[in-house]
Fold Methionine--tRNA ligase, cytoplasmic.
Amino acid sequence: MSLFVSEGNPHGIKVLAAANIWAENVKTQWLQQHEKIVPFMSQPRLPALQLDNGNYLFLSNAICRYFFMSAGNDLCDLINQWLEWESVELQPALSAALYAHVVQGKKKEDTIVAIHELLSYLDHCLAEKSTPYLVNDKLSVADIVVWGSVYPLIVDHSSLPDKFSSLKYWFKNISQLEQCQKVVTLLLKNQGSSIFKTHLQKQPAPTIPSGKPVCSEPEGEETPAHIISEEDILAAANSWSKGLVDTMQPKQRPHPILPVEGEKNVLITSALPYVNNVPHLGNIIGSVLSADVFARYCRLRNWNTLYICGTDEYGTATETKAMEEGLTPQQICDKYNAVHTAIYQWFNISFDFFGRTTTQQQTMIAQDIFHRLLDREFLLTDTVEQLRCETCQRFLADRFVEGTCPFCNYEEARGDQCDKCGKLINAVELKKPQCKVCKQSPVIKSSKHLFLDLPKLEKRLEKWLEQTFSSGDWTANGRLITRSWIRDGLKPRCITRDLKWGTPVPLDGFRDKVFYVWFDAPIGYISITANYTDQWEKWWKNPEQVQLYNFMAKDNVPFHSVIFPSCLLGAENNYTLVNHLIATEYLNYEDGKFSKSRGVGVFGDMAKDTGIPADIWRFYLLYVRPEGQDSGFSWNDLMLKNNSELLNNLGNFVNRAGMFVQKFFNGCVPEMELLLEDKKLLAQVAAELQQYHQLLEKVRIRDALRCILNISRHGNQYIQVNEPWKCIKGNQQDQKRAGTVTGLAVNMAALLSVMLQPYMPTISNIIQEQLLMPQESNVLTSDFRCYIQCGHRIGNVSPLFQKLENDQIESLRKRFGGGQLNNDGAEPQVKVEPKVSASQEAPVQKDNKVVNQQRVKELMEEVEKQGYHVRDLKSKKAEKSTIDGEVQKLLALKKELALAEGKSPDPPTQKGKKKK
């Protein structure tokens, strides 16, 4: 491995520290700031890590994670949450503060004040722990990443205010690690923060973003605010005064929806789910739900939008499923297409058309593309060795073979690709191959097949990719995976299979074969559109007027960025190619993976039975959407986000705003006379709305959701400060003030109802029904305007969300926990213990200490209950002395729990960590 860093780059601190602690064989190379590691990149990206297989990591956090995991460490959910918080919230704010201090010459004390709330949050989390580390009781990558971000600005722990005692203690301990001291000496050269000036001067001036920590945050804390100028305040006040009179009306959408010349025409597809697999939560967020949010947003912008999806129905998997259930392949497709349809309807996915691939249009279009490729000599014929299962009497499709990867020895590699090392595999190369159906060892047999000549198409593909990368929005993983394919050199790709269930190959000598599913399936986007409208070519042969967005999980990238575009380019028929490829990472379940066979995780057909509304599922999946790295579904986190973000934040604000109108003003929106502080609030809301637009236009769906929650936080704070329930009891001036605060608050609730529509459409509709919002207001403007005017009568207001209780969540966790795999991949063994009463429960021995399991269970419940009590006090802004007293009770319970578990109640002594 080679680590490339440049002098004066503040991001070098964390990666070099992580390398010193966890990476033994990494070679560090120093470059100039302007030097590129990869020639075709548009700009330098340092630091960078070149892996032994030739791939690169360019994100500093990803590099640190790699070092940490390569040393044999595991990433738990809490570590991932800290890394996400550092990346989304802390790092942007610190970058802005460092720039202001080093380049603009502002006092360090002032720049620390600018990030005060983030540091307060960090200090608070450390104060509640009984160890000097962020996670558990030992140094983790979360500590190094957060420390490495904070260090360039702070440099010395004495720079931190005394009230941040826990943060100072943690910062000092990490800074004193031998490996960290070496990095500081090497990079800072006794010059302090000024060493970063040259690097920062070449960067655009950053601004401190708004945002709330994404870890299990204490409630009730203020959110870091945008830096609002006088010009921002004036602009916001002017926009507000215009109202909605001159805004566009919601666009009517008569079917069929077709592109319109001169308008923005958006064609959206989400990866076609395979028909006989019931989608789990990870599948849903990876494609259809993410695409749905963007489609709904596009419609709010009045863009001419068509959202297409359907079930992928051909292939061996369908044949095998039919055999298992005693049905024909067509009957299996009919059965499971209905299952998929019902799941997506319950999740409120707003397809314009949901179709399927087993249609005449699919056959016609796929065969036409095939003939055009054949006529232009982009197809090859070759005899290939395939695995054939003699027990099942069939050639095995790649995904129905499993074995040991020939490259990394991963024991569950598929016949086409290894999920661990990412390399493509020919099924016959697998070690110890097995048929997934009968578990027997297949034999190698020869068969004649057709191949797509990708090497012949490579140059035109590269030219198209270069143009698309420069003009379109592709996620980083989409670009990286695609470039890795190009870098390794394209090879001919087989497009036929020895099956019966599929699109027939219309060529003599191959009429007993069908098209391979990954040649055939992406063509389903086109054929499904053709089933929607006979004018489908206006979408699919119109690249000049149509912007195509593909949504998928990262494992589908090569087929959408290399194989499918190559087919369409080779067909030479002016097909619309993807402009924006949006790929997610993976969503894991708790500490493991989703598994239907082991009953692990929530699948789409089960979500309804949990009693949790679809909009809550949508919200949480979008909140943890794996945009830049894998993320995890957690029942505790779902409960926390529902009870804090939805119930106590968003729902609380919307309900209060409406109730004040009902209670104080007989249900009519009062007059509003805006003061300077009101106009500042308008500017803050306008800034969040602007960021919401910017993020969603770049399809950063998870980050845009934070803007909605930030607006409701601003609203809650505004109500708390102005106390309209007191003003309404005062003199005439006070009552006017209560009217202004209430009128502005209920208009913020109206804005939130529109911004929420892509994320929580049912809740959005409920808010609009409660406020009796006019139809013309259901459109998303670029600025914050007065949605409901003085005199407007609202309807009945009621709470939007219900609290999720711990007992309910624990019951669901057990229900969907199934049989998780042990670290060695084996199913857990079930031990049957003799039953005893709670009072007689036998203690167990642990490290020569007696552990009473019943007492441990009781203490765990008490710790959890006290934790919620502390968070509740904070959300209600109780007296600091009261909160401090309850925190001490919590810490005492945690120590007692540690003793009951046979652990030491005291924090371990800080030690520098040696290289492994």
